[in-house]
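Troubleshooting: if your tokenizer reports a length mismatch, compare your output against this known-good record of 323 residues.
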Amino acid sequence: MYLVWTDVFSHPLWAVSTVILGLVLRSQRRGSWDPRACLVQLKGKTAIVTGANTGIGKFIALDFALRGARVIMACRSEARGSVALHEIRKRSGNADVHLRLVDTSSLASVRAFADGVLREEKELHILVNNAGASGLPRDITSDGLEVSFATNHVGPFLLTNLLLDLLKQSAPARIVSVSSMNHWKGMVDFSHFKGKNLGYTMDSVYNHTKLHNVICTNELARRLEGTGVTANSVHPGLVMTEMMRHYNFMVRFLFNMIGIFFFKSSEEGAVSTIYCAVAMETEGITGKYFDSDCSLGLPAPLARDPTLAVKVFEFCERLTSKF
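Known-good structure output:
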């Protein structure tokens, strides 16, 4: 007598054990910090969340709205942003949630958005740079920048710097940059910003941009010492979001199949960013990298090089001053 594998897979115990394993794995994805148990209120505070129409950005914006904040959802799509806006207002009961359009791949759009904020808002207490994309096809923007670098790093870098004075005036204030553990696989090469010497295998370009996020956030934190404004970067975890929408069908299919058991939902993925933005435990902490379980993590060696950080930050300053 021999065992036929098809008999094993078709046995009811196989299905039951698979479901149990899946439930166990899902239960392990949550960190120890629970936003629902955090009593911090944001009444009278203003927060901006980029990429707030979907994924973790939408749940970050919802959390802030539930805490009573004035929330500005910075989104690229007016149609999708409007749907998310109405959902967040309804679920939170907070009418002080607003949609403003910005495309972080366009520096003109970023400047126009920042001008609107500076014109309309008297205070800004939380800035979450969440908007980003992975797997974007090779392209150069109208500003002459590689599209992934423009979207994930240069645009958010410019936005943050344009809003710095308002953040300082509103101190205490917090800046949170949503990065990724993939920054460990990134490299620093200034020619990348113009689309040169780049390989487009899987998420390699994305990894470089996420490294720059951490490097510049750390340097920004150093420059902001004594102002009452903190700046930290965070890894949200492996999250089931639309981040993979630019990859081919097979990659997306495998990602989603594995993700059912191992990856976080968008709501779970938002937790570490919310922790950095509102928790009393993170008050005054700056220049750090938080892991997806809300613990302090160690960033990649390149992100811990202060000399390199100055060079990268100053390069980005010169780059954005041209537009």
